[in-house]
Design goal:
Number of domains: 1
Number of strands: 0
Strand content: under 5%
Order of helices and strands: HHHHHHHHHHHHH
Structural class: mainly alpha
Shape: globular
Radius of gyration: 20 Å
Distance between the termini: 10 Å
Number of helices: 13
Largest sheet: none
CATH superfamily: Voltage-dependent anion channel
CATH architecture: Alpha/alpha barrel
Oligomer: single chain
């Protein structure tokens, strides 16, 4: 009975655990390339395989849940937050795919094309889920407090295909132009969905919140601007007609990164007040991926400054990225502890209610 109750609560939002772990692996991979560190490289591999194991376990539980409780299928696909978190599944698969070929590049043609088509499949899955979320947002009778920044997950997933796709392009061969086109599609859709959904979510929050309540930390869309910074810098480094001039890319990137820095500092101040006094749960995992992309965006921006001999901007962005990385590791460890406490307490309560 206890296992069935645990199984029932294992919705798509639990995939944030695997995504957060994989995000640490991606960041460590970037840091290993920069510092030429075998220790960071090997640690990144550890987090990659840990993320894979967590993903497989969660996917098995999530799938079993639909067979044990068939009614949750309709409930989940009518819940905006559950629909949004469903995009974490193909996003996690894409990160596992790209991270694996980054750590273990293969010259076997069949494996290279398998990674290439896996990327395309994941992109299409994310795109279809974003279409469905948009459809439900327009047609569903949205309840009070249901529209949140969780609905930004699909555009974040779409925009993640940009910097992840850069590793896939060499695998595409004559079809590399398709990846270029998909990258720009993801960037364009994500950019305007950030604005559209973000404004709607903020308006909904301001309208629904009680005057005696303070704003929850998750109302801050940390990571949104960072992912755009990564996208713009990545697009400036691509060859062909899709390339953005460096001056334009740098202007836009610094502007967006500055706003993200503001978001990051405010979120950290709010989290000090909120998170450590909150009841144990899995919401803390929502910080991990945004922290990773903020750190990566800061480091990518610092590398551009360094290559152009801009010393002070380089130092600011580089050390900001390092600080974000340290906070990410701390947040990941804290999230693991809190999640274990949450599961333990939930099982104890389930046993008491069953007896």
């Amino acid at each position: 009975m206890t296992f069935k109750k645990t199984l029932y609560i294992t919705g798509s939002e639990w995939f944030a655990i695997a995504l957060g772990t994989l995000a640490v692996s991606v960041l460590l991979n970037r840091m290993a390339d920069f510092f030429h560190s075998n220790a960071l490289y090997n640690t990144g591999i550890f987090f990659l395989f840990l993320g894979m194991v967590l993903f497989l376990i969660l996917f098995a539980l999530w799938t079993a849940r639909t067979f044990v409780f068939p009614n949750v299928i309709l409930e989940d696909w009518n819940n905006l937050n559950r629909i949004s978190f469903s995009t974490v599944v193909p996003l996690s698969m894409m990160i596992m795919n790209v991270s694996y070929i980054s750590y273990y590049p293969s010259k076997i043609i069949s494996l290279r094309y398998l990674s290439y088509y896996n990327y395309i499949f994941d992109f299409i899955a994310i795109l279809l889920l974003s279409f469905y979320l948009g459809y439900k947002m327009y047609t569903k009778n949205i309840e009070k407090g249901e529209l949140t920044y969780a609905e930004l997950i699909p555009p974040v997933a779409l925009s993640s295909t940009v910097f992840l796709g850069k590793r896939i392009i060499p695998l595409g061969g004559i079809n590399a132009d398709l990846v270029y086109f998909m990258i720009l599609m993801g960037f364009g859709i994500a950019l305007f969905l950030f604005l559209f959904i973000g404004i709607m979510a903020f308006t909904s929050h301001i309208r629904d919140i009680k005057s005696s309540e303070s704003s929850p930390v998750l109302v801050l869309p940390v990571g949104v601007s960072s992912i755009l910074v990564i996208n713009i810098i990545t697009l400036s480094q691509l060859p062909g007609i899709f390339k953005i001039p460096l001056t334009v890319a740098l202007f836009a990137s610094v502007s967006l990164w500055s706003f993200e820095l503001w978001n990051f500092i405010v979120a950290m101040l709010v989290s000090i007040k909120k998170v450590f006094h909150a009841k144990p749960g899995i919401s803390i995992w929502a910080y991990t991926f945004p922290l990773a992309v903020f750190s990566i965006s800061s480091l990518k921006l610092s590398f551009v400054f360094k290559s152009n001999n801009y010393i002070y901007p380089y130092n600011i962005t580089f050390y900001t990225g390092i600080i974000a990385m340290v906070i990410l590791i701390i947040a990941w460890i804290y999230a693991v502890v809190i999640t274990l406490i949450f599961i333990k307490r939930f099982n104890i309560q389930s046993q008491k209610s069953s007896s």
